Amino acid sequence: MKLDQAQRRILALLQKDSSISTQNLAEKVGLSPSPCWRRVRELEEAGLIRGYVALLDREKLGLGTCVWVRVKLTKHSSEVLDRFEAVVKSCNEVVECYELLGETDCLLKLYLPNLEAFSSFMHNFLLKIPEVDITHSSVALREIKNETALPL
């Protein structure tokens, strides 16, 4: 779907505040409310808007430790990857997981209360997955940038 300027502006504004009223959105985009609402619906139906969420403060929720874990699997087969994916998708601590090219097969991003929780995660969950061969972990010292808005 090729986006026009109004659609790009709508998406940019919704990424910053998805709770904005249709009236306010229309005013900022330069449309009347009905056409603006229709454009938002078109963007939803086209799958460009996947949903609406509330962004939470992980620090205030006691999830101050961010850890990246690189995982090498025991072998490269669709069955091994499918089993690993299914287990990882069921784990709440894993907030992101990517399959990679190169020496590392998957990259996990975790939010945890502290390093003790990370140790527990490793020993009681990740290292018990039979498909996991080698792991390398990095603990974030501080968050420099974390944006949810995509560049338009």
From TrEMBL:
InterPro entries membership: ArsR-like_HTH, AsnC-type_HTH_dom, Dimeric_a/b-barrel, Tscrpt_reg_AsnC-like, Tscrpt_reg_AsnC/Lrp_C, Tscrpt_reg_HTH_AsnC-type_CS, WH-like_DNA-bd_sf, WH_DNA-bd_sf
Keyword field: DNA-binding, Transcription, Transcription regulation
Matches recorded under PROSITE patterns: HTH_ASNC_1, HTH_ASNC_2
Gene3D superfamilies according to UniProt: 3.30.70.920, Winged helix-like DNA-binding domain superfamily/Winged helix DNA-binding domain
Domain HTH asnC-type: 3-64
Pfam families per the UniProt record, alphabetical: AsnC_trans_reg, HTH_24
Domain of life: Bacteria
Membrane-spanning segments: none
Annotated SMART domains: HTH_ASNC
Protein name (record): Winged helix-turn-helix transcriptional regulator
Organism in which the protein naturally occurs: Aromatoleum buckelii
